[in-house]
Amino acid sequence: MARDFGEVVHHLQMKKGDVGRYVLLPGDPGRTDLIAKYFDNAKLVANNREYRSFTGTLLGEKVSVVSTGIGCPSTAIAVEELILLGADTFIRVGTSGGMQPEQEAGELAIVTGAIRDEGTTLHYMPPEFPAVADIDVVLALREAAQRTGAHYRLGISHSKDSFYGQHQPERMPVAERLMERWKAWKMGGAISSEMEAAAIFILSSIYRTRAGGIMLVAANQESKNPERKIVEDLDELLRTSIEALKILIEQDRKSKK
Amino acid sequence: METPDGLQHHIQLKKGDAGRYVLLPGDPGRCEKIASYFDTPKFLARNREYVSYCGTLLGEKVSVVSTGIGCPSTAIAVEELIAIGADTFIRVGTSGGMQPGIKTGDIAVVTGAIRDEGTSLHYMPVEFPAVADPDVVWALREGARRIGMPHHLGISQSKDSFYGEVEPQRMPVDKHLLERWKAWKMGGAVCSEMEAAIIFIISSIQRTRAGGVMLMAGDFESPPQNEKELKAMMVLFDVDRVIRTAVEGLKVLIEMDRSH
Fold first, then answer.
1. Across chain A, what does the average pLDDT equal?
2. Quick one: pLDDT at residue A256?
3. A138: nearest CB among B125, B134, B188
4. Among partner residues A112, A129, A181, which is closest to B187 by beta-carbon distance?
5. How close, in Å, is residue B44 to chain A by CA atoms?
6. Shortest Cα distance from B22 to chain A (angstroms)?
7. With an 8 Å Cβ cutoff, is A184 touching chain B?
């Protein structure tokens, strides 16, 4: 776990008690305000670099939202420092690209595991180790999606380091490698491409915390549908992730976890 | 790969022989025992390390097919089983426990596997996670709960070398082995076995479902100190425990599939 730098942790600029054990992790700091609106008694607790944090309550339980910034390097820092502050349950909430032809923009991807197509987690663990979501978090997210009536599917997410390497592989010196690997991920059934899940899952395995993720499929470059729809409305995604937190809180109370 | 008479090349089974639900032990010698838990068990085939039986559970056709040790022979079994219509796999086996607090006889319900083997690299780059199906994991946990079997959810190490794990110090790559073993333990891996990773990777590619339950020997870093302790351990290291868990989990899954 991250070393205690004193009263406040180095990057998040928060101290013990500032965050709850349940934390939603969007990438975009601008979205934390939007998510905090779904909490009771939400309060801005810190704002430093790409890390913007609100804490409030759900069902009377302290919950937080902390942005990670884009990519696994900044996300690993956020997760390390949150664990130091006592958080133990993480749900990544974000946007992603679809990867299967039958996926429609607007559906939700509930992540069961992540492809470690990034550099950060190799500083923690050899690549053969799977980045796996916690089963209880996955099932809570699924239950929540059923309650909110969202279209969803469960599956593996592609966590990459290079946004433009995915969207414009042809202009990269390693184009062939990028395209060959993309094809393999698709054949393996990956349902979303984003940039943070793998680090959250690997750190959670090491520190015995729980993690999951839910992603809006904002667009799908692989869609059979020639009309390339882009969905930007986050309401269903956010309502579903809040509902999942409530399910987890109730479950934890019942099992006194 | 089919032979002219419609049989799969290695497992020597044809379409319809196995049903959709298949239990996968490593040891061909365990198939008969597992089949004895089925209603109306029937011997199907025996070729190389592949022994198979079918039967029913809750009126549903189920089967057991041994994989042999290791991912190479397991990949062949899974490929050929999918070709004849199987879509749900539960690995049933024995393993070494990797975390303090794991007792001999406890069951690991596997959620994912470390791809510490060569076979799955012939399918998929190493960064792709070997993940169990959440419904299968849920059903196996529920199965363990129903029969009161002590169990741990977690990641399994799927390795290619048995002796590299149990006697790393005599291998030329001992440092590499020991360093990685430490990393797997720090990552929370619960058990070490030799087949799960390939079952999960092939299931991702073929869109089938897979999970696994493993009987664990207690952490071998604190082995039994005398004959009495060894005897007590061997009583608990009873493969019947993991078979009962797998069969109960399979029943839960069959019920779940029917209700959907």
1. 96
2. 82
3. B134
4. A129
5. 31
6. 21
7. yes
- Inter-chain CB proximity B116 and A125 less than 8 Å: no
Q: Which residues pair with B40 in a beta bridge?
A: none
B95 within 8 A of B114, measured Cβ to Cβ: no
Please give the average pLDDT of every successive group of 10 residues along chain A, which has 257 residues: 69 96 97 98 97 98 97 97 97 97 96 98 97 98 98 98 94 96 98 98 98 97 87 96 98 91
Residue in B closest to A177 by C-alpha: B125
CA distance A160 to A140: 25
Low-confidence ranges of chain B (pLDDT < 70): 219-222
Q: How far is A213 from chain B (nearest CA, A)?
A: 14
Q: What ranges make up the beta strands (E) of chain A?
A: 22-25, 40-48, 51-58, 61-66, 89-98, 108-117, 131-132, 152-160, 192-194, 210-220
CB-CB under 8 Å, B112 with A126: no
Chain B residues with CB inside 8 Å of A189's CB?
204-205, 207
pLDDT at position B2: 83
Query: Does A119 touch chain B if contact means CB atoms closer than 8 Å?
Result: no
> Which of B14, B15, B36 has its CA nearest to residue B25?
B36
Helices (H) and strands (E) in chain A, counts: 7, 10
Q: Is B220 on the interface with A (CB under 8 A)?
A: no
Give me the DSSP letters along B177-196.
HHHHHHHHHHTT--EEESSH
| Chain A residues inside the 8 Å CB shell of B129 | 113-116, 130-132, 156
Long-range contacts of A179-188 (CB under 8 A, 24+ apart): A181/A117, A181/B125, A184/B124, A184/B125, A184/B128, A185/A99, A185/A115, A185/A117, A185/A156, A185/A158, A185/B128, A186/A99, A186/A100, A186/A222, A187/B205, A188/A115, A188/A156, A188/B124, A188/B128, A188/B201, A188/B204, A188/B205
Whether residue B184 and residue A187 make contact (CB cut-off 8 A), yes or no, is: no
The per-type count for chain B, helices as H runs and strands as E runs, is 8, 10
What is the C-alpha to C-alpha distance for residues A89 and A110, in angstroms, rounded to an integer? 16
Q: B215 pairs with which residues across the strands?
A: B94, B107
The three-point CA angle B132-A247-A24 to 5° equals 80
pLDDT in tens, A8-52: 999 999 999 999 999 999 999 999 999 999 999 999 999 999 999
Partners of residue A114 in chain B, C-beta under 8 Å: 129
**Inter-chain residue contact B188 with A184, CB threshold 8 Å:** no
Question: Of A2, A197, A195, nearest to A80 (Cα)?
Answer: A2
Query: pTM of the entire structure?
Result: 0.92
| Residue located via tokens 């029913």 | B56
Find out whether B218 and B131 touch, Cβ atoms under 8 Å.
no
